[in-house]
Amino acid sequence: MDSLIEKVNKLILFFIIYTGAFIIFFGTLHYTLPFVLALVCALILKRPTVYISKKLNIKPSVASLITTIIFFAIIIIGLVFGIVHLTQETIQFGKNTQTYISQNSNNILNSFYKLQKYYNNLDPNIINAINKNFTSSITKLSNVAVSISGKFVSYIINLVATIPYILMVILFTLLSTYFFTKDMLTVKNKLITILPENKANKLFSIYTETKKMLLTYIISYMIIISITFVETLVVFMIFKIKYALILSLVCAIADLLPILGIGTIYIPLALIYFFIFKNYLVALGLVIAYVVVSIIRQIIEPKLVSSSLGLNPVAVLASLFIGLKAYGIIGVLFCIFLVMFYNILKKSEIL
């Protein structure tokens, strides 16, 4: 009985400490972002730094400098290329959409009018309301397309306006990454000298498990996003969908968002090709692809996340469902990390 009470007390204490740490972490992330990013980068660069240091027979500080510069150069070049390309595609997409709608407004209206035979049995008031909204819907659709592209461009402009802040974040992240990477190579020896060996080893064991799980968690979802992106890109290229790259990227990002998902791209595209372009084969293909990609995603997510983290698939599914229903993405993160850290402490025989 005493052991059960002690276990319950430990679980309650763990939940309180974890919840407080979670709230503090995300509440202060705006101020600690460069250092959090630097820590993640340092964890990624640790092995390459050790390898370069041994291979070239140079000091760890020099190896840390080399890996940090190369790593950030690759990231910055990739971001610049991606932002420029996506901005160009988005602006072109907005212009082409507006041009198409303005030039084919009569055809689009005729397509909507042909739909009347499907709702003639409805209440006359509903039919009149639908008829009155046809023209305004076309105008709104055009305005939405322009608005989306305009907002994206506006976002890019605002991003440019915050360049001083971004540069400061990059600078602090770069410097912190270098120092974290350099110091991380000797952190175990420093802990052993400060703490008793058994406690230092246990703390290092917790750190190792946490690092392993966090990295595998990030990698797992990067793989899921990549699979969704590649599947969507292949589908759009097969059906010769314009702006396949940007639409596939948006689809992959939307795949992580609650409620929205890949349906925010697939369903509107299928409706456009069915009612406007009259290309029923492409519309049917998009619907089938949407179902297949969704099923694949639902199958691989619990298995990939649970296997990579060493967690029970039911626990992962419960975390995803409860977190999503409770507080969206933040709720999912809270529940997943709760299960993850519980598993780490259990392995370390603390709980």
UniProtKB/TrEMBL annotation:
Q: What membrane topology term does the record carry? A: Multi-pass membrane protein
Q: Name one GO biological process term.
A: transmembrane transport
Q: Where are the transmembrane segments?
A: 12-45, 65-86, 152-180, 214-239, 245-273, 280-300, 320-345
Per the record, a Pfam family? Answer: AI-2E_transport
Give the GO cellular component terms, alphabetically: membrane
Sorted UniProt keywords: Membrane, Transmembrane, Transmembrane helix
Where's it found, cell-wise? Membrane
Q: Which InterPro entries match?
A: AI-2E-like, YtvI-like
Entry similarity comment: Belongs to the autoinducer-2 exporter (AI-2E) (TC 2.A.86) family.
For this entry, the protein name equals Conserved membrane protein
Please report the organism this UniProt entry assigns to the protein: Clostridium tyrobutyricum DIVETGP
